[in-house]
Amino acid sequence: MNKRQFLFLDIIGILGAVFFAVLCGFVIIFFVSEEPAAAISSFVLGPFSSPFNISTIVNKATPLIFTGLALAVVFQTNIFSMGAEGQLYVGGFVGALAATYIQGMPAMIHILVIFLFALAGGAVFGFIPGYLKAKWNANEVVTTLMLNYVAIISTSYLINNVFKDPESGGFARMPFFDKDILLGKISGTFPVHYGIFIAIAAVIFVYTMLYKTRLGYEMRLVGQNIEFARYGGIKTSRIIIVSVMISGALAGLGGIVELMGIHGTYKDSFSINLGFDGIIIALLARNNPIAVLLAAVFYAYLQVGGQVMQAESDVSRELAVIIQVLLVLFVSAQAVFNYLKQRSIMKNKNGKISGDKAVKADVV
User: Fold this and answer.
1) Which domains does the chain have, with CATH numbers?
2) Among candidates 30, 28, 62, 26, which has minimal Cα distance to 43?
3) How many other C-beta atoms are found inside a 10 Å radius of the C-beta of residue 170?
4) Is residue 224 over pLDDT 80?
5) Where does the sequence pass through the membrane (predicted)?
């Protein structure tokens, strides 16, 4: 079976997982709703019922594109990082400090400086688990999960006790950013902020890096077979650290884009599991940057569909969460199935090679 056939089956498997997850959601609606047809109609068609709902899909998809890309990059090296949430917080916080306390610059230069600070904050925070993995083979799932809590709690403490705006009252936030550096809306009737274009640029950058550069080739090779990569002269420790730092930088950029496009300031607990949702996006996209864009939009569509359904019917928007969980289960099950299938194929090939060698030895 060639690569094109494997890709085709992979796409069919993902579409099947999406279909069955949504189908299960519809079955649940039939059991819990007095008017299931109206609820399903609201869920499916509601997100497209107005320009505002469509713009909400795009705005919700924007940070998911960044976190999905962040995790797709690091998953390519077979490092199962779960640290996008913490890296998003740190990058967003550092970028917000630059937005609030660096003054006297032209707006465009100031925006670039803010983005650089956010990229650096996320990358430096990503360096920690990357170094621990490369140096001592520390389990990246454990280290990144623990560091998430360090990031969330530390930034919460700082925003509540050090950098809180005195005029914010009971809300824990920094002073509002200058209007000149905010990511404005495309129009009043279609309030999508310009961060979506930054997200699309990030997709193009990550795709080019992974598939058109030596670094991307080395990252993918390390992910496929780290021992082969090591014997081939690739500095695998460096690749692991770099991949996690790039992942952290992307997550950090996503954090500041969300703050500059939606909130206008740094708010405590501004992320509602954006980093963890990025794991689902990367799994759905099979770590392909282009597919990350589509997966993020679909995931945001589910969220908006749940909100519209709750407003227009007797079904809670938590149904969308159930569908998202089912998506994870079905996609993960398919990934395990593919892994076992490929392992079986490799065993059969190795067995055939061993058998051929034995026959040759007998002939000799």
Assistant:
1) 60-306 (1.10.3470)
2) 26
3) 4
4) yes
5) 7-32, 52-74, 86-102, 108-129, 141-159, 192-211, 239-257, 290-309, 321-340
Surface-to-core class of residue 29, CB atoms within 10 Å of its CB (0-12 exposed, 13-18 middle, 19+ buried): buried
Model pLDDT, residue 263? 97
**In the predicted model, is pLDDT for residue 6 greater than 80?**
no
What's the chain's average pLDDT?
A: 91
Could you tell me the sign of the dihedral formed by the alpha carbons of 57, 290, 263, 323, in that order? positive
Q: Is 50 helix (H, G, I), strand (E, B) or coil?
A: coil
pLDDT tens figures, 168-210: 888 899 999 999 999 999 998 899 999 999 999 999 999 999 9
How wide is the angle at C-alpha 43 spanned by C-alphas 42 and 44, nearest 5°? 95
Q: Measured between alpha carbons, how far is 182 from 83 in angstroms, rounded to an integer? A: 27
pLDDT (0 to 100) of residue 272: 84
Neighbours of 280 (CB within 10 A): 23
d(CA 229, CA 146): 29
Token pair, residue 109, equals 């230069």
Cα dihedral angle (152, 153, 154, 156), rounded to 10 degrees? Answer: 80
CA distance 1 to 202: 33
Which residues are CB-neighbours of 113 under 8 A, at least 6 positions away?
98, 102, 105
Tell me which residue of 240, 260, 110, 253 sits closest to 185, measured CA to CA.
260
